[in-house]
Amino acid sequence: MEFREDNNETGMKTGEQVFHGIGASKGIAVGPAFLFMKSVVEESNEVLDSDSIEQEIERFLGALQRSEKELTKIEQVTTRKLGKVYSDLFNAQIMLLHDRMLIDSVCNRIRQEHKTAGTVIEEEFDKYLQHFNNSSDQLFQERAQDLIDIKNRILRNLQNKKLQSRIPEGMIVVSTCLSPADIILFSRTSVRAFVTETGGVTSHISLICRSLNIPIIVGISNFTQKLKTGDQLIVDGTSGTAILSPADRTIDEYLRRHEEESRVEADVCRLADAPSQTRCGTPLHFYSNIDFKEEIPSVRNAGAEGVGLFRSENLFIDNTKPPQEAEQQAYYSDMAEALAPDPLVIRLFDIGGDKLIYSSIREPNPNLGWRGIRILIDVPDILDSQLLAILKANTRRNIQVLMPMISSIEEITQIRTTLERHVLALRESGTTCDMPKIGAMIEIPAAVLLIDEITKMVDFISIGTNDLTQYTLAVDRNNEIVQDLFDKFHPAIIRQLHTIITTANRNSCKVSLCGDMGSDPLALPFLLGCGLREFSIVSADIAQLKSIARYLTVDSSRQLAEACLTLDSAAKIKERLKEYQAQHVPDSLPGIDRNA
């Protein structure tokens, strides 16, 4: 947190407090805060007498009915606002309320253990939640919020407590955590923005906010303790900056920026369907990173040329066991059909020992343990079902296979051999089947050292800069203690990127970058200078990158890259990149912040 002292028009000192989180949905909002604190539902843990058992079961079943009624209304609102794309989130929750295993388990335990419905529900849901919360993967921690929302909804309805669904118009909602239902309901009151202490850029609330064009900042620790309802607040969902009690001139500055960004954004959006190229005419290609098939409409609207990374492990999240082959095939088919003839790059399950939610395996350091390609090779049933599903779904011949966490040549050989075996078997059974293109994620230093051999074995590579930075610098990007050391512009990172890209181009192997670095306007000219021409990024960032690229030339970018490779610190590299940006890119373009 930063504290700024200023003088207002009367000469009195004012203090504005600046907080930094993660910008998960772009945009600027100025207005009063609404502190939304969810009430904690406390259930009695008394032992029930025999005469109260059936009455308690009826209370539980009634709570399920009231929860379903609420979710049905929310689903209808979601359908009107966003179409069926996101309403399926609430359909899934409604289906859970009808889950016979859950219902029978709760009812049986009430009868056998004489516990209250609330106590049993807490214990049943906690069995699932511990698998999510114990995961070091932020994506799984975020999905835990969806389960918590269902649990809290049932507990609240057990006590017939009213759902808070409306707030005053034009507020900025601040909360410890929010559910997708909260976002949908509050959006009916023209909410200006959201700020939460938890969550991430891939959480459902972030995806919904991006679709609704509502700014949201996530991950500002203890923020709810810093303000009260009615306090003036500025939210910058692009930079992740929240300013509490801003000075008048700060408000004026952000209102001006908001107006300018709206104007420029409208101009940039017109580029969505325009060809991607540099000022000197060099073609560029932009693809989307997605987590769910529901995001495909945004892929089209953003002007992407397909999906460069589909994180297929999300199919695990709402299940206690791996998704069945038929379920996967149907899911992949829907996506491939919607995108055809554009490509769909499916990353094989990037799961880890801490993420296999049906497994009892616990590791002291999962990021350096049994995960990614290692599990797929060790548990062939998981690999076989996914590869068969992909092959059967590839009727439009636009699906490509991406292998995660590659660290050796042997791993590539094993996956390719397995894939070829399945292709042959399907052909022999009379199924038309083509060998899909196969690629490797480059996200471990070992893969960088083997990049010459790897790029001669695969059809394409995709650089995962997030993990590459984490593994190279030995910094857990989710660890707040060492988060300042996580720097994608570290000399060791940019030198590896240059090696990877130039080697792939020399070996005629297609290369793209799918990490967060690909969305950074500051990094774009450096990557162009290294020879990168394909980017797989968040759909919402594509128009912005296209507009910036039109001010760059390959020659000047190459000179910039060569200069950066000689520098010995991230600070010097960023300074050089900023100098280049100031010389070539107008300040008025969205995403350009000279003060960053």
TrEMBL record:
Reaction(s) the record says it catalyses: L-histidyl-[protein] + phosphoenolpyruvate = N(pros)-phospho-L-histidyl-[protein] + pyruvate
EC number: 2.7.3.9
PEP-utilising enzyme C-terminal domain: residues covered: 270-550
Span of domain PEP-utilising enzyme mobile: 167-240
Family: Belongs to the PEP-utilizing enzyme family.
NCBIfam families according to UniProt: PTS_I_fam (TIGR01417)
Protein name according to UniProt: Phosphoenolpyruvate-protein phosphotransferase
Species annotation: Prosthecochloris ethylica
